[in-house]
Amino acid sequence: MDYTRKKISISVLLLFIYLFNLMTVLAAEEVPANVYMGSKEAEVILKNMDFQDVEAQGQDYWARDAIYDMAALSIIKGYGDKNFNRQGPVTKVQALALIYRAAGREEEAQLAAEAIELQRGQENKRTNAIDVWGDGYLKLAADDGLITPEQLENALAEDQRSLNPQTDFIKNAPAQRQEVAEWIAKILQLTPVYDQQALFNSFRDWRDADPLKIPYIEAVLREKIMNGTPQGFLYPKSSIPREQMAQVLKNAQKFILNRQNWTEKKGYIEKIARNISPQIDGQLETTIFKVRNSDGSLDHILITSYDDIIVLGRGAPGTSALLKDGDSIAYIVDANGVVKLVRVLGDSQDAVRAGAIVSIDPEAFKISIKNNGDSISEYAVARSAEIIIDGKFGTFEQLKVGLTVQLTLKGNIAIKIRTMADEQGLDDKEVTGIVEDINTDLGYISLYDESGKKSFNLLRVYNFLNPSLVKVIRNGREAEIQDVQPGDSAFLKLDEQGYVTEIACSQNYTVKYGKVLTKNPTSVIVQYDDGTQELLDIEQDTLITKDKKEANYTDVLPGSQVKVVLHRTDNFTRLKELVVESTSYNINAIYKANVYFFDEYNSSLILQNLKKLELGRWTLTGQKGFKEIPVKDTALIYAGNRRINAQDINERYVDKEVYVAVESGLGGVERAVQVRIRDESDIERVYTDSIVSLKTGTGEMRLAQQQDVVRYASGSIIVKNGKLVGGNNLSANDQVYVVASRDYTSGRYEADVIQVLDMPSDGAYAIYRGRIQSIQENSDFTLQSFSQLDGVNWEYYNTPKTFLLSNETKIVDQDGVVNNREFNEYSDRNYIGKVVTVVSDGVKAILISEAPYGVYSLRGEVYLGYGQTAGNSLSLKKVTVYNRQTGLWDQANDAEINLRADTIIMKDGRLAKVSDLKRGSVVRIIKADPQPTGEAFIVIIEK
Amino acid sequence: MKKKICSFLVLLMILLNTSFPAYGMPGVNGYQGGISSGEVEGVQTYDYKEVVFITGEPVVYSGQLVVVRSTKTDTETTTYRYNLTSGENNRLTRTVVLETKIEEKSNQTVRKTILKSRPVERITIGDVVYTLDTLSTVDFSMSTITDRRPACDYFAGNWNSKKTYSGGNGRLVTVTTTGKNYGYDQYWGSAEVQEISMSIESTGQIGNEQDHWTGMVDIKISSSTSKQLIYMNNRPEEISFEGGYLQKQQNNSILQYTAYLPEFDSRGISTDRIVKYKDELSLQSFPRQERLPVPDLKKIKGHWYEKDVKELYSLEVLDDNEFVPNQYMTRAEFAKAVVKAAKMPVEENNNRQQGRRNNRKEQEVSPYLDVPTNHAYYPYIRTLYDNGTMTGTGNNNFNPDGIITRVEALTIFIRLMGFESIAPNPTAVTLFRDNDSIPDWGRNSVAVASYIGLVKGDDYGYLNPNQPMTKAEAAAFLNRFINYMRYDIIKDYRDRVMTY
Prior knowledge:
The structure holds two protein chains of two kinds.
Chain A: H1 3-26, E1 34-37, H2 42-48, H3 52-55, H4 64-72, H5 92-102, H6 106-119, H7 129-143, H8 149-156, H9 177-187, H10 198-201, H11 214-222, H12 242-251, H13 253-260, E2 263-279, E3 282-293, E4 298-303, E5 311-312, E6 328-333, E7 339-344, E8 351-361, E9 366-370, E10 376-389, E11 392-393, E12 404-410, E13 413-419, E14 430-439, E15 444-447, E16 460-463, E17 471-474, E18 477-479, E19 489-494, E20 500-506, E21 510-519, E22 523-528, E23 533-537, E24 543-546, E25 549-550, E26 561-568, E27 573-580, E28 587-599, E29 604-614, E30 617-620, E31 626-639, E32 642-643, H14 649-652, E33 657-664, E34 670-677, E35 683-695, E36 700-703, E37 710-711, E38 717-720, E39 723-724, E40 735-742, E41 749-756, E42 766-776, E43 780-790, E44 793-797, E45 801-804, E46 810-813, E47 816-818, E48 835-840, E49 845-849, E50 856-864, E51 873-882, E52 889-891, E53 895-907, E54 910-911, E55 922-927, E56 933-941
Parallel strand pairs in A: 1-4, 5-7, 10-13, 17-20, 24-27, 31-34, 37-41, 38-41, 46-49, 53-56
Antiparallel strand pairs in A: 2-3, 2-6, 3-4, 6-7, 8-9, 8-12, 9-10, 10-11, 12-13, 14-15, 14-19, 15-16, 17-18, 19-20, 21-22, 21-26, 22-23, 24-25, 26-27, 28-29, 28-33, 29-30, 29-31, 31-32, 33-34, 35-36, 35-40, 36-37, 38-39, 40-41, 42-43, 42-48, 43-44, 43-45, 46-47, 48-49, 50-51, 50-55, 51-52, 51-53, ...
Chain B: H1 2-17, E1 35-36, E2 45-52, E3 59-72, E4 75-86, E5 90-105, E6 108-115, E7 120-125, E8 128-132, E9 139-148, E10 153-166, E11 172-186, E12 189-206, E13 209-233, E14 243-264, E15 270-284, E16 288-291, H2 306-314, H3 331-341, H4 349-358, H5 378-386, H6 406-417, H7 443-451, H8 471-493, H9 495-499
Antiparallel strand pairs in B: 1-2, 2-3, 3-4, 4-5, 5-6, 5-7, 6-9, 7-8, 8-10, 9-10, 10-11, 11-12, 12-13, 13-14, 14-15, 14-16
């Protein structure tokens, strides 16, 4: 017989034998829900995944499971040379190949490769098979738009050395992490995230990424396929070692399974049945692995002498010979019913089984129990097993048939047997208690004793036949069995056999209040009101809210007040919800003054010579003489770096100079939250600078302009985002105002105050000007052509531009606010043909002003600003005017400029208010003429 | 004539002695969304602030509020008179009379309030005068429930109101309010929180155009009375005592509002653009102070718990002449200290006997076999039995000479405050390592005490529930309880409501 016919006849024979076996045993045996087969390629794959360098790393090697899993699934291919090259960087073509294979497009790539080969002339034919296949993946990448046609050309070029590494696509160059992220997102079809890239922005080196790739990187981060380092770095441009790539692919497993139409199942091997049946030419060995799945159903895996399965998790990868009765396994099956791999889970864990005793063998020390689905399993009992009957220690002899027990197994031997506690009996229809543990895979739920005692032998254990059939109500709403948590208060309804049919439960979470001390990319350290601190991980299902709305992790700022809802058990603490303060009692001033005395009765500091830190300078405030500032009861008061009590101030520190950080507290009352008394022999220096580097351990900062290293210590007042924070929340590139003292004896600088400037938010607005051509009422309007303000010049574009209107669009003219209902084509204001100035983000109109056209720019420093002059005018000094001919800024006289009702005021790319024009601000004004008087049409606050 | 005067005087005395709620917080801010400087003994006129939104912009009015209350059997009538100004020329005057029916049900009181008569109101803002529109109804309906616990009363209520102003020129403004309030009342402090949601609907004509807009305002009010202990050192050395405690009582009210009101164009017509206004105001009453007696406790100078013991003596919670700090405290002694700490009214022994002589025919029977009615601590033990705080050790025994343990003290406190209902069902499982050695009856109280931050356990996670307490340790515990009632519970009612 030829090979194929032999194959067919054997399969038919096999089926017949199997069915025959099945029928004879049918009376006693359960019918499996599925019958899966082994794979004919198993042996070959195993040989190719014999990686000596991986084995040499031992059982605890972190990437071991990922590498073997991906190799077993034929995503990672070995070439029989026993080396995985785990630390080598993944090249670009390798990365594409891995990801396309993971997406199940290997065949497509091979066809593409063959097509390319055919097109090559004889002399150009590739000699290396791997190279040929590589081309196939590159072609797919080009077709899918992952690389450009030019890049494909580079990649297919014969002479790779002639390519320019700076500009060309070098396929064998290491792939960058950001490239890998983009390709994974695109090939596995993740949805790119275009708005709020919260995770991405939380990394310190986010600026190193290619902006076009960011939405894909964000998508990959959200699915936790790539995670960055715990220190908060993403390293977008770095290469990625092959072992890490394996782990990245494993992290994407659910997408891979989805794309390839594979399923992952979990269960344990109830029994291995080996069968040898005589054949015409020898014997046919079949092995059936009967697997009880976690949902209660039974599957069979059928292995013959011609196929096998890859078994992982028990030493080096091997065949089905590694499996034993009772093993807990996870396995992946493809769309054709072929098992791709089996991973043994149950080796290191104790397994738990529950059921009723059907027979006891006292001599062999064995018992059989009947569990879910009516199948009977036999277990050996260890001689030293712990046997607890009705809550008390007992002996093996006291076990009786019919008792419902819970077994704890190691390997397949029972080391602990427990019967249900006394009060239960099978007559109880409803029981209540606090949930100790619930395991849907193994089908049981355990409750603490009703008295609240935790001892193990008082636990009450109940089983469910089929977890998905149990009706669950949690917190008054319909829920799934997976939603029931340890710690919940639960009521269980039992049927006649004592199985759980319904569960009603409510959560018992702990609520605590505190302040965020440190914010890490995926965790926070919170200091509670009672002084204790705790590290809490932000999990997938942690809800972050603010103002009763869902918020992002970016809304959580170091120093903000938070409420945390915790799920606490003896084994773990999970953060369920993080509520961020909606009213921020921010630090709104930093003062320097002399202490007059501390009023104990009213708990307030009386100060004189008060000055406020404004824009990096000490300026006098509006209040003359003495100022009383209440001190918050939790305020921190330092003499240098030593904590003191407020009462101590009157004993030794009267008349000393102090720095005071003040918050706008409850009731709008200003309150001191941190006070630092300075040593007057030190010399004070104030400067504006930016941080180059930080050594958080020793508290040292290196600043860009200042030469000496400046230290900060426990008493330093550090304010960031309006909150008092610790030095560990400072980062490189922060712009800061620093007030430092130079120690008289040591000459070293220590910062008394560090105030970090708020970063400008992304998405600056731009200023446009043009003639209105048409208006769609309440929807949008179009300028027939427009100019955009770029620095000191208006750049003209002879194309129309449309802006969207919304309820937030503000319209002003010289009299003030214009009703947006009048902004249409037929109103008396005659907007069609009118020239307006528009502030926009490029799409929406934020402000429409009728302020006139100005081409002259004037710059100056405000010395009488908002509130200090009569009417709406600004007094400026250090004035310079831009000379349009020379392109230089000429000196000019002090200026007095009037503001109109429709003057546009901007700061940091956003609209600002007149009150932001403070003394010391540097402004640039667009006006009609270069004179130091007149009206300002546009005011841009530069500093 | 003499008889009439006599009976009139008796009637007056009865009326004056009718028990008002202990320290009377609810209602002192009125229900108009404003805050007052709070109730002070002997005073009926308070400082008051309120924000008026009817013109489309927040305008702050401040001035005086006079509150007059009178009670007849189960009906209470309260009159509020407001007299406020804003700036030089704007005035607000208002008179509201509310009628409350009081119903007692076991340990709870239900109060239902409606308007007794139509209120009168007049507001001038700029050159417009607003008065209540005669053609529209004014509605007010409120219901509050008070839950009385041994050491603290808690209340919660809801109200709805609606009124329409007419501002001349056909302008009508309707203000619809929904409010919720909650609070607590005990000797060491009291607080009320109000959460109010107001909608302001305004219609009118400006020039030829109809102007119709609706704005929304959220107001949070927190009003509290606190008693703070301040230690005053004496400057002279040659004086009989080196320092003593001052108890300072002060009321503090905070108003936080967030208003979403339309922007107005240069003609005064509302646009579609909504502006958000957010601000906070506060008022304080003038503090009252009381110098507390100075105990002679030089024997414990320098002891770890010196401060706690001194405070408790000054507050007259402890009065033992022979205080030995490391002597164990008995359950009876602790019962007396607890009654004094919660300032519960108790009939001293002599009164009880007099009462019996006067008109009672029944014999007073002790609920406990081991505490006779003439026991020195009987009145205190009896008080705690009557309100369910200490119920004995079983079998009608109290075990007065037994030593008080940590878990007993915690359970007593949780019952005093009425917090047992916070514990999970059926019995809490705590995270202390010695969870199982906590007596079953005390486990819920321990869980609640741990939850509110009253007890933390030692560095190893042990609670040591059954450890007996010495007098000094008990003093520290009691002081911890009192400070919880003074300073901690208010955070839940003030800081957290304002911040989140």
